[in-house]
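ok here's the first one, seq then C-alpha coordinates
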Amino acid sequence: MAGKVKWVTDIEKSVLINNFEKRGWIQVAENEDWNFYWMSVQTIRNVFSVETGYRLSDDQIVNHFPNHYELTRKDLMVKNIKRYRKELEKEGSPLAEKDENGKYIYLDFVPVTFMLPADYNLFVEEFRKNPSSTWIMKPCGKAQGKGIFLINKLSQIKKWSRDSKTSSFVSQSSKEAYVISLYINNPLLIGGKKFDLRLYVLVSTYRPLRCYMYKLGFCRFCTVKYTPSTSELDNMFVHLTNVAIQKHGHLLIMGLSSFLQCSPSLLPLPSFCRKQRECAVANLR
Protein backbone atom coordinates (compact mmCIF):
# COMPACT_ATOMS: atom_id res chain seq x y z
CA MET A 1 0.00 0.00 0.00
CA ALA A 2 1.44 3.36 -1.02
CA GLY A 3 1.29 6.18 1.54
CA LYS A 4 -0.57 6.20 4.84
CA VAL A 5 -2.99 3.36 5.61
CA LYS A 6 -6.61 4.54 5.78
CA TRP A 7 -8.68 2.68 8.33
CA VAL A 8 -12.26 2.46 9.50
CA THR A 9 -14.01 0.42 12.18
CA ASP A 10 -17.52 -0.01 13.52
CA ILE A 11 -16.19 -1.28 16.87
CA GLU A 12 -15.17 1.51 19.24
CA LYS A 13 -12.50 -0.38 21.16
CA SER A 14 -9.56 1.60 22.55
CA VAL A 15 -7.15 -1.31 21.94
CA LEU A 16 -7.92 -1.05 18.20
CA ILE A 17 -7.98 2.73 17.86
CA ASN A 18 -4.82 3.23 19.94
CA ASN A 19 -2.92 0.74 17.79
CA PHE A 20 -4.08 2.31 14.54
CA GLU A 21 -3.18 5.81 15.72
CA LYS A 22 0.18 4.65 17.08
CA ARG A 23 1.09 3.52 13.58
CA GLY A 24 0.16 6.88 12.12
CA TRP A 25 -2.75 5.45 10.16
CA ILE A 26 -5.51 7.80 9.02
CA GLN A 27 -9.12 7.30 10.09
CA VAL A 28 -11.76 7.72 7.38
CA ALA A 29 -15.51 7.16 7.06
CA GLU A 30 -16.86 3.85 5.75
CA ASN A 31 -18.15 5.54 2.58
CA GLU A 32 -14.65 6.85 1.77
CA ASP A 33 -11.71 4.97 0.29
CA TRP A 34 -10.17 2.71 2.94
CA ASN A 35 -7.38 0.16 3.18
CA PHE A 36 -8.23 -1.58 6.45
CA TYR A 37 -11.70 -2.14 7.88
CA TRP A 38 -12.10 -3.79 11.28
CA MET A 39 -15.70 -5.00 11.11
CA SER A 40 -18.11 -6.66 13.48
CA VAL A 41 -19.37 -10.09 12.41
CA GLN A 42 -22.78 -8.70 11.42
CA THR A 43 -21.25 -5.89 9.38
CA ILE A 44 -19.01 -8.22 7.43
CA ARG A 45 -21.99 -10.43 6.61
CA ASN A 46 -23.92 -7.42 5.36
CA VAL A 47 -21.04 -5.98 3.34
CA PHE A 48 -20.20 -9.26 1.64
CA SER A 49 -23.74 -10.55 1.21
CA VAL A 50 -24.88 -12.02 -2.10
CA GLU A 51 -27.07 -8.97 -2.66
CA THR A 52 -24.22 -6.44 -2.51
CA GLY A 53 -21.71 -8.46 -4.54
CA TYR A 54 -18.93 -6.44 -2.88
CA ARG A 55 -15.36 -7.52 -3.54
CA LEU A 56 -12.13 -6.27 -2.01
CA SER A 57 -9.62 -4.43 -4.14
CA ASP A 58 -5.92 -5.34 -4.00
CA ASP A 59 -5.17 -2.65 -1.40
CA GLN A 60 -8.02 -3.53 1.00
CA ILE A 61 -7.91 -5.83 4.04
CA VAL A 62 -10.60 -6.84 6.56
CA ASN A 63 -10.31 -8.66 9.88
CA HIS A 64 -12.67 -11.57 9.11
CA PHE A 65 -13.13 -13.92 6.22
CA PRO A 66 -16.76 -13.35 5.16
CA ASN A 67 -17.73 -17.00 5.67
CA HIS A 68 -15.53 -17.64 8.72
CA TYR A 69 -18.47 -19.18 10.58
CA GLU A 70 -18.00 -22.31 8.41
CA LEU A 71 -15.12 -23.07 10.79
CA THR A 72 -16.11 -21.22 13.96
CA ARG A 73 -19.65 -22.57 14.40
CA LYS A 74 -19.55 -26.02 15.98
CA ASP A 75 -22.11 -27.66 13.67
CA LEU A 76 -20.63 -26.21 10.49
CA MET A 77 -17.10 -27.16 11.53
CA VAL A 78 -18.21 -30.77 12.03
CA LYS A 79 -20.02 -30.73 8.69
CA ASN A 80 -16.90 -29.49 6.90
CA ILE A 81 -14.60 -31.97 8.63
CA LYS A 82 -16.89 -34.84 7.58
CA ARG A 83 -16.96 -33.47 4.03
CA TYR A 84 -13.17 -33.25 4.02
CA ARG A 85 -12.89 -36.87 5.15
CA LYS A 86 -15.22 -38.05 2.38
CA GLU A 87 -13.29 -36.10 -0.26
CA LEU A 88 -10.01 -37.66 0.86
CA GLU A 89 -11.60 -41.12 0.74
CA LYS A 90 -12.81 -40.53 -2.83
CA GLU A 91 -9.33 -39.41 -3.83
CA GLY A 92 -7.80 -42.50 -2.24
CA SER A 93 -5.60 -40.32 -0.05
CA PRO A 94 -3.42 -42.14 2.52
CA LEU A 95 -4.68 -39.60 5.07
CA ALA A 96 -8.08 -41.31 4.91
CA GLU A 97 -6.65 -44.68 5.95
CA LYS A 98 -8.65 -46.60 8.58
CA ASP A 99 -7.72 -49.33 11.06
CA GLU A 100 -9.28 -52.79 11.34
CA ASN A 101 -12.14 -51.31 13.40
CA GLY A 102 -13.04 -48.80 10.71
CA LYS A 103 -11.64 -45.82 12.61
CA TYR A 104 -9.56 -43.13 10.93
CA ILE A 105 -5.86 -43.37 11.73
CA TYR A 106 -4.89 -39.80 10.84
CA LEU A 107 -8.23 -37.99 10.83
CA ASP A 108 -9.43 -39.19 14.23
CA PHE A 109 -9.05 -35.77 15.87
CA VAL A 110 -12.78 -35.18 16.37
CA PRO A 111 -14.91 -37.62 18.40
CA VAL A 112 -18.09 -39.14 16.98
CA THR A 113 -20.47 -36.19 16.63
CA PHE A 114 -24.06 -35.65 15.54
CA MET A 115 -26.27 -32.62 15.06
CA LEU A 116 -29.48 -32.41 17.06
CA PRO A 117 -32.29 -32.50 16.38
CA ALA A 118 -31.47 -33.37 12.73
CA ASP A 119 -29.38 -36.50 13.46
CA TYR A 120 -31.34 -37.76 16.44
CA ASN A 121 -32.09 -41.20 15.00
CA LEU A 122 -28.47 -41.70 13.94
CA PHE A 123 -27.35 -40.67 17.44
CA VAL A 124 -29.72 -43.15 19.12
CA GLU A 125 -28.41 -45.94 16.91
CA GLU A 126 -24.83 -45.10 17.90
CA PHE A 127 -25.71 -44.64 21.58
CA ARG A 128 -27.27 -48.10 21.81
CA LYS A 129 -24.03 -49.69 20.63
CA ASN A 130 -22.49 -48.59 23.92
CA PRO A 131 -25.25 -47.58 26.36
CA SER A 132 -22.78 -46.95 29.19
CA SER A 133 -21.03 -44.15 27.29
CA THR A 134 -21.11 -40.46 28.19
CA TRP A 135 -21.90 -37.71 25.67
CA ILE A 136 -21.48 -33.95 25.77
CA MET A 137 -24.04 -31.54 24.30
CA LYS A 138 -23.15 -28.02 23.14
CA PRO A 139 -25.34 -25.33 21.54
CA CYS A 140 -23.98 -24.51 18.07
CA GLY A 141 -24.14 -20.74 18.31
CA LYS A 142 -23.00 -20.01 21.87
CA ALA A 143 -19.68 -19.56 23.63
CA GLN A 144 -18.14 -19.33 27.13
CA GLY A 145 -19.54 -22.71 28.14
CA LYS A 146 -23.16 -21.55 27.97
CA GLY A 147 -25.74 -24.29 27.53
CA ILE A 148 -23.25 -27.19 27.73
CA PHE A 149 -24.14 -30.34 29.64
CA LEU A 150 -23.25 -34.06 29.79
CA ILE A 151 -25.63 -36.99 29.45
CA ASN A 152 -25.39 -40.76 29.81
CA LYS A 153 -29.06 -41.71 29.33
CA LEU A 154 -31.46 -41.26 26.43
CA SER A 155 -34.08 -40.05 28.89
CA GLN A 156 -31.92 -36.97 29.50
CA ILE A 157 -32.13 -36.13 25.80
CA LYS A 158 -35.91 -36.38 25.95
CA LYS A 159 -35.98 -34.11 28.98
CA TRP A 160 -33.85 -31.59 27.06
CA SER A 161 -36.32 -31.81 24.20
CA ARG A 162 -39.26 -31.10 26.51
CA ASP A 163 -37.42 -28.23 28.19
CA SER A 164 -36.72 -26.79 24.74
CA LYS A 165 -40.47 -26.41 24.16
CA THR A 166 -40.74 -29.12 21.49
CA SER A 167 -42.53 -32.41 21.66
CA SER A 168 -40.84 -34.15 18.72
CA PHE A 169 -37.45 -34.36 17.11
CA VAL A 170 -39.19 -34.16 13.74
CA SER A 171 -40.09 -30.52 14.28
CA GLN A 172 -36.80 -28.61 14.04
CA SER A 173 -37.74 -25.03 13.22
CA SER A 174 -38.24 -23.86 16.81
CA LYS A 175 -35.40 -25.82 18.42
CA GLU A 176 -31.93 -24.44 18.97
CA ALA A 177 -29.35 -26.56 17.15
CA TYR A 178 -26.93 -28.58 19.27
CA VAL A 179 -23.97 -30.82 18.60
CA ILE A 180 -23.59 -33.97 20.67
CA SER A 181 -20.21 -35.68 20.83
CA LEU A 182 -18.91 -38.83 22.45
CA TYR A 183 -17.21 -37.63 25.62
CA ILE A 184 -13.53 -38.47 26.10
CA ASN A 185 -13.54 -40.24 29.45
CA ASN A 186 -9.74 -40.58 29.78
CA PRO A 187 -8.38 -37.12 28.83
CA LEU A 188 -4.77 -36.04 29.29
CA LEU A 189 -4.54 -34.43 32.73
CA ILE A 190 -2.09 -32.15 34.50
CA GLY A 191 -2.18 -32.29 38.28
CA GLY A 192 -5.26 -34.45 37.90
CA LYS A 193 -7.16 -31.67 36.12
CA LYS A 194 -8.43 -31.13 32.60
CA PHE A 195 -6.81 -28.41 30.53
CA ASP A 196 -6.65 -27.04 27.01
CA LEU A 197 -4.30 -24.84 25.01
CA ARG A 198 -5.31 -21.47 23.57
CA LEU A 199 -3.06 -20.76 20.61
CA TYR A 200 -3.37 -17.81 18.23
CA VAL A 201 -2.95 -18.17 14.48
CA LEU A 202 -3.34 -15.45 11.86
CA VAL A 203 -4.54 -16.76 8.50
CA SER A 204 -3.85 -14.14 5.84
CA THR A 205 -5.00 -16.20 2.86
CA TYR A 206 -6.47 -19.63 2.13
CA ARG A 207 -5.38 -19.80 -1.52
CA PRO A 208 -2.53 -20.29 -1.08
CA LEU A 209 -2.80 -21.19 2.60
CA ARG A 210 -0.60 -18.84 4.63
CA CYS A 211 -0.63 -18.91 8.43
CA TYR A 212 1.33 -17.12 11.14
CA MET A 213 1.38 -18.67 14.60
CA TYR A 214 1.93 -16.34 17.54
CA LYS A 215 4.73 -17.45 19.85
CA LEU A 216 2.73 -16.89 23.02
CA GLY A 217 -0.55 -18.36 24.18
CA PHE A 218 -2.00 -19.70 27.39
CA CYS A 219 -3.48 -22.79 29.00
CA ARG A 220 -6.87 -23.04 30.62
CA PHE A 221 -7.38 -25.37 33.57
CA CYS A 222 -10.32 -26.74 35.47
CA THR A 223 -10.23 -25.83 39.15
CA VAL A 224 -11.49 -29.24 40.33
CA LYS A 225 -9.72 -32.55 39.72
CA TYR A 226 -11.20 -34.70 36.98
CA THR A 227 -13.27 -37.79 37.65
CA PRO A 228 -15.34 -39.83 35.19
CA SER A 229 -17.83 -40.59 37.95
CA THR A 230 -21.44 -40.19 36.84
CA SER A 231 -22.14 -38.39 40.11
CA GLU A 232 -20.07 -35.46 38.80
CA LEU A 233 -21.63 -35.14 35.34
CA ASP A 234 -23.30 -31.88 36.34
CA ASN A 235 -20.15 -30.37 37.87
CA MET A 236 -18.83 -28.08 35.15
CA PHE A 237 -15.80 -27.15 37.28
CA VAL A 238 -14.64 -30.72 36.61
CA HIS A 239 -15.38 -30.90 32.90
CA LEU A 240 -15.17 -27.47 31.22
CA THR A 241 -12.09 -25.25 30.99
CA ASN A 242 -13.97 -22.11 29.90
CA VAL A 243 -12.70 -19.09 31.81
CA ALA A 244 -16.25 -17.74 32.12
CA ILE A 245 -17.06 -20.85 34.19
CA GLN A 246 -13.81 -21.53 36.01
CA LYS A 247 -13.46 -17.95 37.31
CA HIS A 248 -16.26 -18.86 39.72
CA GLY A 249 -14.48 -22.01 40.93
CA HIS A 250 -13.96 -22.08 44.67
CA LEU A 251 -10.30 -23.13 44.40
CA LEU A 252 -9.51 -20.15 42.19
CA ILE A 253 -11.35 -17.76 44.47
CA MET A 254 -9.41 -19.13 47.45
CA GLY A 255 -6.22 -18.19 45.62
CA LEU A 256 -4.57 -21.62 45.82
CA SER A 257 -1.90 -21.59 43.13
CA SER A 258 0.20 -24.71 43.57
CA PHE A 259 0.46 -26.07 40.05
CA LEU A 260 0.15 -29.78 40.78
CA GLN A 261 -2.26 -29.57 43.70
CA CYS A 262 -4.54 -26.62 42.88
CA SER A 263 -3.46 -25.25 39.52
CA PRO A 264 -4.70 -21.78 38.51
CA SER A 265 -7.32 -21.46 35.83
CA LEU A 266 -4.89 -19.76 33.42
CA LEU A 267 -1.23 -20.39 32.70
CA PRO A 268 0.99 -18.67 30.11
CA LEU A 269 2.13 -21.04 27.37
CA PRO A 270 5.89 -20.79 28.15
CA SER A 271 5.15 -21.71 31.78
CA PHE A 272 3.07 -24.65 30.60
CA CYS A 273 5.88 -25.91 28.34
CA ARG A 274 8.38 -25.56 31.19
CA LYS A 275 6.12 -27.51 33.56
CA GLN A 276 5.65 -30.23 30.93
CA ARG A 277 9.41 -30.62 30.54
CA GLU A 278 9.84 -30.77 34.31
CA CYS A 279 7.16 -33.46 34.60
CA ALA A 280 8.72 -35.44 31.74
CA VAL A 281 12.13 -35.36 33.39
CA ALA A 282 10.63 -36.34 36.76
CA ASN A 283 8.87 -39.32 35.16
CA LEU A 284 12.13 -40.56 33.64
CA ARG A 285 13.86 -40.69 37.00
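and now the second one, same deal
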Amino acid sequence: MGSYANGSTRADDDPPSVEKLKEPAIPLKTMPLHANAWLNDMKISSPTAIRVNIGNNVAFDPIYRAWTKKYPSALNAFEKIVAYGKGKKIALFLDYDGTLSPIVDEPDHAVMSDQMREVVRSAALHLPTAIISGRSCDKVFDFNKEMKIFQAASEFLPMIDEVFRLLVDKVRGIDGAKVENNKFCVSVHYRNVNEKDWPLVARCTDDVLKAYPRLRLCHGRKVLEVRPVIDWNKGKAVEFLLDSLGLADSDKVLPIYIGDDRTDEDAFKVLREDKRGFGILVSSVPKESHALYSLVDPPEVMDFLKRLVKWKEEEEET
Protein backbone atom coordinates (compact mmCIF):
# COMPACT_ATOMS: atom_id res chain seq x y z
CA MET A 1 0.00 0.00 0.00
CA GLY A 2 1.80 3.08 -1.17
CA SER A 3 1.21 6.60 0.01
CA TYR A 4 1.65 9.99 -1.52
CA ALA A 5 2.43 13.50 -0.38
CA ASN A 6 -0.37 15.41 1.27
CA GLY A 7 -0.36 18.65 -0.69
CA SER A 8 2.92 20.45 -1.26
CA THR A 9 3.58 21.78 2.24
CA ARG A 10 7.32 21.62 2.80
CA ALA A 11 8.82 19.87 5.81
CA ASP A 12 10.22 23.18 6.99
CA ASP A 13 6.85 24.96 6.92
CA ASP A 14 5.92 26.07 10.42
CA PRO A 15 2.56 24.66 11.55
CA PRO A 16 0.74 26.71 14.17
CA SER A 17 1.82 26.00 17.75
CA VAL A 18 -0.59 24.54 20.28
CA GLU A 19 -0.59 27.79 22.24
CA LYS A 20 -1.74 29.80 19.20
CA LEU A 21 -4.70 27.71 18.17
CA LYS A 22 -7.86 29.50 17.11
CA GLU A 23 -11.43 28.28 16.79
CA PRO A 24 -12.39 27.30 13.23
CA ALA A 25 -15.38 28.95 11.71
CA ILE A 26 -17.79 26.00 11.68
CA PRO A 27 -18.96 24.58 15.04
CA LEU A 28 -20.33 21.05 15.30
CA LYS A 29 -23.83 20.35 16.55
CA THR A 30 -26.47 17.67 16.60
CA MET A 31 -29.28 18.47 14.21
CA PRO A 32 -32.94 18.64 15.26
CA LEU A 33 -35.41 16.05 13.98
CA HIS A 34 -36.62 17.84 10.86
CA ALA A 35 -36.26 16.02 7.55
CA ASN A 36 -35.84 19.21 5.49
CA ALA A 37 -33.01 20.40 7.72
CA TRP A 38 -31.44 16.96 7.51
CA LEU A 39 -31.18 17.06 3.73
CA ASN A 40 -29.01 20.15 3.82
CA ASP A 41 -26.79 18.58 6.49
CA MET A 42 -26.59 15.34 4.55
CA LYS A 43 -25.08 17.31 1.67
CA ILE A 44 -22.73 19.27 3.95
CA SER A 45 -21.55 16.09 5.68
CA SER A 46 -20.98 14.29 2.39
CA PRO A 47 -19.10 16.67 0.09
CA THR A 48 -18.20 15.62 -3.43
CA ALA A 49 -14.57 14.55 -3.45
CA ILE A 50 -12.14 16.95 -5.06
CA ARG A 51 -9.70 14.99 -7.17
CA VAL A 52 -6.11 15.33 -6.02
CA ASN A 53 -3.39 14.87 -8.61
CA ILE A 54 -1.65 11.81 -7.19
CA GLY A 55 1.87 10.94 -8.21
CA ASN A 56 2.64 14.42 -9.58
CA ASN A 57 4.76 16.51 -7.21
CA VAL A 58 4.00 19.72 -9.07
CA ALA A 59 0.42 19.69 -10.32
CA PHE A 60 -1.48 19.31 -7.05
CA ASP A 61 -4.99 20.64 -6.96
CA PRO A 62 -4.57 24.34 -6.07
CA ILE A 63 -7.55 24.38 -3.69
CA TYR A 64 -6.26 21.38 -1.78
CA ARG A 65 -2.75 22.82 -1.82
CA ALA A 66 -4.00 26.04 -0.25
CA TRP A 67 -5.96 24.01 2.32
CA THR A 68 -2.82 22.16 3.44
CA LYS A 69 -1.27 25.50 4.31
CA LYS A 70 -3.88 25.75 7.07
CA TYR A 71 -3.80 22.03 7.93
CA PRO A 72 -0.19 20.92 7.23
CA SER A 73 0.66 17.32 6.48
CA ALA A 74 1.40 15.39 9.68
CA LEU A 75 4.03 13.49 7.69
CA ASN A 76 5.82 16.65 6.62
CA ALA A 77 5.52 18.07 10.15
CA PHE A 78 6.45 14.79 11.85
CA GLU A 79 9.71 16.02 13.36
CA LYS A 80 7.96 19.02 14.88
CA ILE A 81 5.20 16.82 16.33
CA VAL A 82 7.60 14.39 18.01
CA ALA A 83 9.80 17.26 19.18
CA TYR A 84 6.79 18.59 21.06
CA GLY A 85 6.25 15.09 22.47
CA LYS A 86 9.85 14.63 23.61
CA GLY A 87 9.89 13.65 27.27
CA LYS A 88 6.11 13.18 27.26
CA LYS A 89 3.91 10.10 27.11
CA ILE A 90 2.07 10.09 23.78
CA ALA A 91 -1.49 8.78 24.03
CA LEU A 92 -2.86 7.68 20.68
CA PHE A 93 -6.58 7.76 19.80
CA LEU A 94 -7.76 6.40 16.45
CA ASP A 95 -11.00 6.44 14.53
CA TYR A 96 -11.73 3.28 12.51
CA ASP A 97 -13.69 3.83 9.27
CA GLY A 98 -11.80 6.04 6.83
CA THR A 99 -8.80 6.17 9.17
CA LEU A 100 -7.62 2.60 9.78
CA SER A 101 -9.85 1.09 7.11
CA PRO A 102 -10.81 2.53 3.71
CA ILE A 103 -14.22 4.06 3.03
CA VAL A 104 -16.04 1.50 0.91
CA ASP A 105 -19.49 1.20 -0.63
CA GLU A 106 -20.45 -1.72 1.64
CA PRO A 107 -19.87 -0.91 5.36
CA ASP A 108 -19.37 -4.60 6.21
CA HIS A 109 -16.35 -4.62 3.88
CA ALA A 110 -14.60 -1.81 5.76
CA VAL A 111 -11.85 -3.84 7.41
CA MET A 112 -8.25 -3.10 8.29
CA SER A 113 -5.62 -4.63 6.07
CA ASP A 114 -3.30 -7.14 7.71
CA GLN A 115 -0.51 -4.61 7.32
CA MET A 116 -2.48 -1.87 9.08
CA ARG A 117 -3.51 -4.28 11.82
CA GLU A 118 0.12 -5.14 12.49
CA VAL A 119 1.10 -1.47 12.60
CA VAL A 120 -1.67 -0.70 15.13
CA ARG A 121 -0.58 -3.70 17.23
CA SER A 122 2.97 -2.38 17.20
CA ALA A 123 1.82 1.11 18.20
CA ALA A 124 -0.16 -0.33 21.11
CA LEU A 125 2.98 -2.08 22.40
CA HIS A 126 4.79 1.24 22.73
CA LEU A 127 2.03 3.79 23.37
CA PRO A 128 -1.32 3.93 25.19
CA THR A 129 -3.60 3.33 22.19
CA ALA A 130 -7.38 3.32 21.85
CA ILE A 131 -9.75 2.97 18.92
CA ILE A 132 -12.82 5.20 19.29
CA SER A 133 -15.53 4.13 16.89
CA GLY A 134 -19.28 4.07 16.49
CA ARG A 135 -18.98 0.44 15.40
CA SER A 136 -19.48 -2.39 17.87
CA CYS A 137 -16.25 -3.80 19.26
CA ASP A 138 -16.62 -7.20 17.60
CA LYS A 139 -16.62 -5.45 14.20
CA VAL A 140 -13.41 -3.56 14.96
CA PHE A 141 -11.00 -5.76 16.83
CA ASP A 142 -10.26 -9.34 17.76
CA PHE A 143 -6.98 -8.47 19.43
CA ASN A 144 -7.94 -9.24 23.03
CA LYS A 145 -11.03 -11.25 23.87
CA GLU A 146 -10.69 -10.35 27.57
CA MET A 147 -10.56 -6.60 27.01
CA LYS A 148 -12.68 -4.60 29.45
CA ILE A 149 -15.04 -2.29 27.61
CA PHE A 150 -16.69 0.86 28.91
CA GLN A 151 -20.30 0.98 27.76
CA ALA A 152 -22.02 4.33 28.21
CA ALA A 153 -25.51 3.45 26.98
CA SER A 154 -26.38 -0.12 27.96
CA GLU A 155 -29.91 0.78 29.02
CA PHE A 156 -30.68 1.86 25.43
CA LEU A 157 -29.85 -1.49 23.82
CA PRO A 158 -33.46 -2.79 23.54
CA MET A 159 -34.56 0.55 22.04
CA ILE A 160 -31.64 0.54 19.59
CA ASP A 161 -32.55 -2.99 18.46
CA GLU A 162 -36.19 -1.96 17.97
CA VAL A 163 -35.31 1.13 15.94
CA PHE A 164 -32.90 -0.93 13.85
CA ARG A 165 -35.68 -3.33 12.85
CA LEU A 166 -38.09 -0.47 12.09
CA LEU A 167 -35.55 1.36 9.92
CA VAL A 168 -34.64 -1.80 8.00
CA ASP A 169 -38.29 -2.19 7.10
CA LYS A 170 -38.79 1.54 6.41
CA VAL A 171 -35.95 1.96 3.89
CA ARG A 172 -36.36 -1.45 2.28
CA GLY A 173 -37.72 0.10 -0.93
CA ILE A 174 -34.89 2.66 -1.32
CA ASP A 175 -32.29 1.34 -3.73
CA GLY A 176 -28.82 1.40 -2.17
CA ALA A 177 -29.90 2.23 1.40
CA LYS A 178 -28.40 0.07 4.14
CA VAL A 179 -29.12 0.02 7.89
CA GLU A 180 -26.45 -1.24 10.28
CA ASN A 181 -26.83 -2.11 13.97
CA ASN A 182 -23.69 -0.99 15.78
CA LYS A 183 -25.02 -2.02 19.20
CA PHE A 184 -25.03 1.47 20.72
CA CYS A 185 -26.18 3.28 17.61
CA VAL A 186 -27.96 2.59 14.33
CA SER A 187 -26.35 3.74 11.10
CA VAL A 188 -28.42 4.51 8.00
CA HIS A 189 -25.96 4.47 5.09
CA TYR A 190 -26.87 6.35 1.91
CA ARG A 191 -23.49 6.13 0.13
CA ASN A 192 -25.03 3.98 -2.62
CA VAL A 193 -28.32 5.90 -2.80
CA ASN A 194 -29.00 8.20 -5.75
CA GLU A 195 -28.86 11.78 -4.49
CA LYS A 196 -32.41 12.42 -5.69
CA ASP A 197 -33.53 9.83 -3.12
CA TRP A 198 -31.68 11.38 -0.17
CA PRO A 199 -34.81 13.31 0.92
CA LEU A 200 -36.64 9.98 1.07
CA VAL A 201 -33.92 8.53 3.32
CA ALA A 202 -34.21 11.56 5.61
CA ARG A 203 -38.00 11.37 5.66
CA CYS A 204 -38.06 7.65 6.48
CA THR A 205 -35.55 8.11 9.30
CA ASP A 206 -37.51 11.10 10.60
CA ASP A 207 -40.76 9.10 10.59
CA VAL A 208 -39.21 6.44 12.83
CA LEU A 209 -37.43 8.80 15.24
CA LYS A 210 -40.54 10.88 15.95
CA ALA A 211 -41.66 8.09 18.29
CA TYR A 212 -38.32 8.00 20.15
CA PRO A 213 -37.56 11.31 21.93
CA ARG A 214 -34.69 9.67 23.82
CA LEU A 215 -32.79 9.18 20.57
CA ARG A 216 -31.07 11.82 18.48
CA LEU A 217 -29.58 12.07 15.01
CA CYS A 218 -25.95 12.76 14.11
CA HIS A 219 -24.48 13.22 10.63
CA GLY A 220 -21.42 11.42 9.31
CA ARG A 221 -19.96 10.91 5.86
CA LYS A 222 -22.96 9.67 3.85
CA VAL A 223 -24.45 8.11 6.97
CA LEU A 224 -27.15 9.11 9.45
CA GLU A 225 -26.40 7.85 12.96
CA VAL A 226 -29.19 7.35 15.50
CA ARG A 227 -27.79 7.63 19.02
CA PRO A 228 -29.09 7.83 22.60
CA VAL A 229 -29.65 11.30 24.03
CA ILE A 230 -26.80 11.27 26.52
CA ASP A 231 -23.96 13.70 27.06
CA TRP A 232 -21.47 11.54 25.22
CA ASN A 233 -19.36 11.92 22.09
CA LYS A 234 -15.84 11.17 20.96
CA GLY A 235 -14.50 14.18 22.82
CA LYS A 236 -16.05 12.86 26.05
CA ALA A 237 -14.56 9.45 25.24
CA VAL A 238 -11.05 10.93 24.96
CA GLU A 239 -11.46 12.73 28.28
CA PHE A 240 -12.79 9.57 29.94
CA LEU A 241 -9.94 7.41 28.64
CA LEU A 242 -7.25 9.92 29.63
CA ASP A 243 -8.74 10.06 33.11
CA SER A 244 -9.00 6.24 33.31
CA LEU A 245 -5.34 5.91 32.33
CA GLY A 246 -4.29 8.49 34.91
CA LEU A 247 -3.16 10.86 32.16
CA ALA A 248 -5.78 13.61 32.41
CA ASP A 249 -4.01 16.11 34.65
CA SER A 250 -0.44 15.67 33.51
CA ASP A 251 1.51 18.15 31.41
CA LYS A 252 3.77 15.24 30.51
CA VAL A 253 1.16 13.74 28.21
CA LEU A 254 0.61 14.46 24.51
CA PRO A 255 -2.72 13.08 23.20
CA ILE A 256 -2.93 12.62 19.42
CA TYR A 257 -6.30 11.89 17.82
CA ILE A 258 -6.53 10.76 14.19
CA GLY A 259 -9.93 10.70 12.47
CA ASP A 260 -11.68 11.49 9.22
CA ASP A 261 -15.32 12.17 10.04
CA ARG A 262 -17.58 14.90 11.37
CA THR A 263 -18.10 12.82 14.52
CA ASP A 264 -14.35 13.09 15.24
CA GLU A 265 -14.57 16.86 15.50
CA ASP A 266 -15.64 16.69 19.17
CA ALA A 267 -12.33 14.98 19.97
CA PHE A 268 -10.35 17.47 17.87
CA LYS A 269 -12.11 20.29 19.68
CA VAL A 270 -11.32 18.93 23.16
CA LEU A 271 -7.61 18.71 22.37
CA ARG A 272 -7.60 22.11 20.68
CA GLU A 273 -9.40 23.92 23.49
CA ASP A 274 -7.25 22.30 26.20
CA LYS A 275 -4.10 23.19 24.24
CA ARG A 276 -2.55 19.87 25.19
CA GLY A 277 -2.62 17.71 22.07
CA PHE A 278 -3.06 17.44 18.32
CA GLY A 279 -5.96 16.45 16.12
CA ILE A 280 -5.08 15.00 12.70
CA LEU A 281 -7.82 15.05 10.06
CA VAL A 282 -7.76 12.33 7.41
CA SER A 283 -9.22 13.86 4.27
CA SER A 284 -8.57 14.33 0.56
CA VAL A 285 -11.32 16.99 0.52
CA PRO A 286 -10.68 20.52 1.83
CA LYS A 287 -12.99 21.26 4.77
CA GLU A 288 -13.00 23.25 8.00
CA SER A 289 -11.92 21.33 11.07
CA HIS A 290 -10.82 21.64 14.70
CA ALA A 291 -7.81 19.49 13.78
CA LEU A 292 -4.32 20.95 13.54
CA TYR A 293 -2.76 18.65 10.95
CA SER A 294 -3.94 16.47 8.06
CA LEU A 295 -3.30 13.18 6.28
CA VAL A 296 -4.77 12.20 2.93
CA ASP A 297 -5.96 8.64 3.54
CA PRO A 298 -5.44 5.39 5.53
CA PRO A 299 -2.12 4.57 3.75
CA GLU A 300 -0.77 7.91 5.01
CA VAL A 301 -2.13 7.11 8.48
CA MET A 302 -0.19 3.84 8.37
CA ASP A 303 2.99 5.66 7.34
CA PHE A 304 2.54 8.14 10.19
CA LEU A 305 2.01 5.33 12.74
CA LYS A 306 5.06 3.45 11.45
CA ARG A 307 7.21 6.56 11.88
CA LEU A 308 5.75 7.14 15.34
CA VAL A 309 6.58 3.59 16.41
CA LYS A 310 10.11 3.82 15.02
CA TRP A 311 10.65 7.14 16.80
CA LYS A 312 9.38 5.66 20.07
CA GLU A 313 11.63 2.59 19.73
CA GLU A 314 14.67 4.82 19.16
CA GLU A 315 13.69 7.01 22.13
CA GLU A 316 13.41 3.93 24.39
CA GLU A 317 16.88 2.79 23.35
CA THR A 318 18.54 6.06 24.38
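notes on #2: The chain has a mean pLDDT of 79. The CA atoms of residues 127 and 271 lie 18 Å apart.
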